[in-house]
Amino acid sequence: MSNRDYAKAQIDALPDNAIEKVLEFISFQKYRLGLYDNDTDYLTSVPGMADKIKAGLATPITDCVSLSDVWPDV
Questions:
Q1: Residue 67, CA distances (Å) to 25, 35, 54, 58 in order
Q2: Who's near 22: CB < 8 A, 6+ residues apart?
Q3: Long-range contacts of 10-19 (CB under 8 A, 24+ apart)
Q4: Cα–Cα distance, 14 to 34 (Å, whole number)
Q5: What is the pLDDT along the chain (74 residues), one digit of tens a residue?
Q6: Taking the CB of residue 23, how many other CB atoms lie within 10 A of it?
């Protein structure tokens, strides 16, 4: 059995709630290998990322954490 076939069989054996993490890892590997044309293609390939970005854009600035609270040394 090839590594590819083994990986496919292991994915089939995983519960549905673990598949999202596998997809995130696959997206990251494709990004790392330069298989996406741009960052937008990569980000939209991550499950749920587009919704998180849209939610962040819809959040009022007053509800956001300040940059200095996130990175005090910047």
A1: 28, 32, 19, 18
A2: 11, 14
A3: none
A4: 27
A5: 899 999 999 999 999 989 989 998 998 899 899 998 898 988 888 888 999 999 999 999 999 998 889 998 86
A6: 15
